[in-house]
Write a structure and sequence with these properties.
The chain is mainly β and 187 residues long. It has one helix at 175-178, and strands spanning 2-3, 6-8, 21-23, 26-28, 41-43, 46-48, 61-63, 65-68, 87-90, 108-110, 128-130. Pfam families: Pentapeptide (PF00805), Pentapeptide_4 (PF13599).
């Protein structure tokens, strides 16, 4: 186990990490392109300006992790270990990420791009999408109880195929909930 270490300007591309457990570590400006994170556990770790392109995530664990300005295109959360998952994301590029069949309850996304991300059969209850772009994101059989979409944009969510109990929206976002009805809405 590696504890309380700073990893800065490291290129780990196409390699394996030196340990399977990291606790309270900070990774700044690290390149993890094509890294195999299988079975690796990150507890209370911070990732700043890191590149996670094409990483392998089989049973990877993130507990109390924070990601800031990270490139996480196509990140397969559905392959991660869901036990005790908790993370925050700020100014991250999470386009085409897969959250299918995964629970990310109470996760906070702030100023993130989630274009084309998949939330099929996911539990996103109490998640906050603060100023996030959800264009072409897929919500199907998603549980979104008390989820905050008030400052999110470009989402299309069918209330008949998702659980939206007490989810928060602003009136400007209502067209994204009514798309399937092909209504001509005016202001």
């Amino acid at each position: 186990m590696i504890i309380d270490q700073l990893f800065e300007n490291k290129d780990y591309s196409a390699s394996k990490l030196e340990s399977k457990e990291y606790d309270s570590c900070v990774f700044k400006n690290c390149n993890f392109t094509e890294v195999d994170f299988a079975g690796v556990s990150f507890l209370s770790c911070e990732f700043v300006t890191c590149n996670f392109t094409s990483v392998q995530l089989k049973q990877t664990s993130f507990q109390e992790a924070s990601f800031n300005e990270c490139k996480m295109l196509g990140f397969s959360f559905d392959k991660c270990n869901s036990f005790l998952f908790s993370a925050t994301f700020e100014s991250c590029q999470l386009d085409y990420s897969n959250f299918s069949n995964y629970s990310i309850k109470t996760t906070i996304f702030k100023d993130c791009s989630l274009l084309g991300s998949v939330f099929t059969n996911a539990n996103i209850s109490q998640v906050v999408f603060d100023a996030c772009d959800l264009k072409n994101a897929i919500f199907e059989n998603t549980v979104a109880k008390k989820t905050d979409f008030t400052t999110a944009r470009n989402y299309i969510i069918d209330p008949e195929n998702n659980v939206l109990t007490k989810a928060k929206f602003i009136t400007d976002g209502l067209p994204g909930l009514l798309v399937k009805y092909n209504l001509d809405l005016k202001r």
